[in-house]
Specification:
The chain has about 220 residues and is an alpha/beta fold. The chain has one domain: 3-Layer(aba) Sandwich (Aminopeptidase). The protein is about 30% helix and about 20% strand.
Amino acid sequence: MWGDRPWRGTRWLLQNTMSIWVTGFEAFGALQRNPTAMLIEALAESPPVVGLRVMLLPVCYTTAEPLLEEILATRPRLWIGLGAHPGAGCFELERIGLNLDDTARPDQRMEVRRESPIRPGRPDAHCATLPLAELRDALLGAGVPAIISNTASSYLCNHSLFYMLDRSAELGLANRCGFFHLPLFPDQATRKTPPTPSMSIEVQLRGLAVALSYCLS
């Protein structure tokens, strides 16, 4: 069963021919069943591209960064981070990672960061290095609703996006990095009051397969 597996920081090295990564987040807070964790499990069991590696990140500032460094050590060709966005009804392709942690929401270790730079002395922001407009069109063409989003917020999703973009630039990696916010699954959305938009795991997996293939083409 899902809950019996030690997923934190575990990588499935499905093939070693390319360094291609997708990360999701563990369950935390109101999301006791994080859709991105279930997507990571499905990608691990049936990878849509050769060379895919996957990882679950903790919802924690201090312990997420060393795991991102493990990914960077493989000199990734592509990294796509996934985060759940309750209320979203489509793939939200994030345009910008801000050098800022700023939310009253605590992480798993109850750390709260307000108006705190992620990496002091580094740029204020980085743009995602995925071809967002073309990728959005490819998703729409495959029947997967998608938009470009101009804010990844200022919590762990944005933190991971900025960290990967900034460290990739610092290391001189000619790679593609980006982040997608994804909807809840229908059974989760219908339990909310009022119900929120949703998207099935089948459609989300199809969208991820399209995105990975397009970004590697």
